[in-house]
Amino acid sequence: VVQQVGIGLAIGFTVRLVFAAVELAGEVVGFQMGLNFASFFDPSLNTQSSAVAKFFGQMAAFLFIVMNGHLMVLMAVIKSFESFPVDQNFLRAVGSMKLYTLGADLFASGLWMALPMVGMLMFANLALGIVSRIAPQMNIYAIGFPITLTVGLIGITATLPMLDQPFFALMERTLDIFAGK
């Protein structure tokens, strides 16, 4: 029983890590947009999270339902009985899952999801820096925030439809651990 509860907790943990990778992408994009001050208290994690990260988390939840992620998790639970049969070798089962390798992969995936937005916002900030050097009498703070916010919102609108492919790939990669692949 302890082994199967541990494997079930590991499945839930990996699915939560996929959502955390998408929320990390939202945090990075929100930081680049200058929206880190717009943060909310998240009672489920007992932390502060930015509005963009919550938005990306909600979009990930919608994608999870639309792509039948709940069925993928149930299939992972069923396949886990084949990959990790019911016996008393709990530590061997947890060791063969190699959950520790997911940390770096999911962190890198979250940054890859945010990379187009970060590049676009860095280009906008570079353009604002050039404007501030060319025309120092302009108040760069007065025009910089609305421009950065507008570019960020346009970028989110343009890149959000492409979020499904990396999210689906992350879900498959993490749930393949429990299928014995």
Give a description of the structure.
75% of the residues lie in helices and 4% in strands. The protein is mainly alpha-helical. Strand 1 (39-42) and strand 2 (47-50) form a beta hairpin. The longest helix has 33 residues, at 102-134.
Mean pLDDT: 84
Query: How far apart are the first and last residues' alpha carbons, in Å?
Result: 24 Å
Helical residues, percent: over 70%
Give the biggest beta sheet: 2 strands, antiparallel
Range of strand content: under 5%
Structural class: mainly alpha
Shape summary: elongated
String of helices and strands:
HEEHHHHHH
Quick one: how many beta strands? 2
* Rg of Cα set: 20 Å
Question: Can you describe this structure in just a few lines?
Answer:
The chain has 181 residues and is mainly alpha-helical. The model has no long low-confidence stretch (mean pLDDT 84).
